[in-house]
């Protein structure tokens, strides 16, 4: 509402889909947590939600462990500035290979300059990174590489679709939408699409959609909702807030 005397509540997966200009699809939101949420015509399929406490944190930790070993412990990546360096190295070099085994055989070392961080005397001004730049991301599809006993991203997406209404599954398979900071890694969408295609029948088409603004997809979706002409009608005013909360409490408990 324009006067700030009301508010509306919308589920984040629905907002992400609004940013993609659709109302049906599987939202794969990868941040510090992994959330896989099927949405059909704007309604979240509650029974099919998958939420697991791993994602970008494990990617960073896998890269940190390798960098500490390869750079003789000069950086521990524990201080605030070192954590910024780790994030910078991750964003500059990490990717998801289409064929992990082949990439291991053909990949070459790359150097990352740290001059912009003004390293102190005696500290290295660059990192040499080998296959650790894609080894750290492979855990998304092969969690055992992170020491986790759970299913890979493609398997979790497949299960979420299978737990959705049967008449919507084909539509969901071809409408998978990425969001979250970790979704920005190059090659992730292609790898997910490839791995999904390998476990579903040949008659089913799988497609993973990405956009350059997927990092802020939920925020952009909220802007779309707030700019709609019917937004004021969906808001709860301060006057009606006690009644709304009472109704919400009675419907949840």
Automatic annotation (TrEMBL):
<protein>
    <recommendedName>
        <fullName>Actin</fullName>
    </recommendedName>
</protein>
<dbReference type="InterPro" id="IPR043129">
    <property type="entry name" value="ATPase_NBD"/>
</dbReference>
<dbReference type="InterPro" id="IPR004000">
    <property type="entry name" value="Actin"/>
</dbReference>
<dbReference type="Pfam" id="PF00022">
    <property type="entry name" value="Actin"/>
</dbReference>
<comment type="similarity">
    <text>Belongs to the actin family.</text>
</comment>
């Amino acid at each position: 509402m324009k006067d700030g005397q009301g508010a509306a509540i919308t589920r984040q997966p629905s907002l992400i889909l609004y940013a993609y200009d659709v109302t049906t699809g599987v939202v794969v939101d990868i941040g510090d947590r992994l959330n896989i949420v099927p949405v059909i015509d704007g309604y979240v399929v509650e029974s099919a939600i998958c939420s697991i406490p791993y994602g970008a944190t494990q990617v960073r930790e896998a890269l940190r462990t390798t960098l500490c070993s390869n750079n003789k412990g000069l950086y521990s990546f524990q201080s605030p500035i070192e954590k910024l360096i780790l994030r910078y190295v991750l964003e500059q070099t990490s990717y998801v290979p289409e064929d992990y085994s082949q990439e291991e055989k053909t990949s070459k070392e790359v150097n990352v300059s740290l001059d912009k961080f003004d390293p102190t005397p005696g500290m290295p001004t660059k990192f040499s990174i080998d296959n650790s730049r894609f080894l750290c991301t492979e855990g998304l599809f092969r969690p055992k590489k992170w020491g986790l006993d759970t299913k890979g991203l493609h398997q979790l997406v497949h299960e979420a679709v299978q737990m959705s209404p049967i008449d919507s599954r084909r539509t969901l398979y071809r409408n998978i939408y990425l969001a979250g900071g970790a979704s920005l890694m190059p090659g992730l969408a292609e790898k997910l699409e490839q791995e999904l295609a390998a476990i579903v029948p040949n008659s089913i088409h799988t497609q993973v959609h990405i956009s350059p603004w997927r990092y802020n997809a939920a925020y952009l979706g909220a802007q779309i909702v707030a700019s709609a002409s019917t937004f004021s009608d969906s808001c709860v005013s301060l006057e009606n807030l006690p009644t709304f909360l009472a109704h919400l409490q009675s419907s949840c408990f």
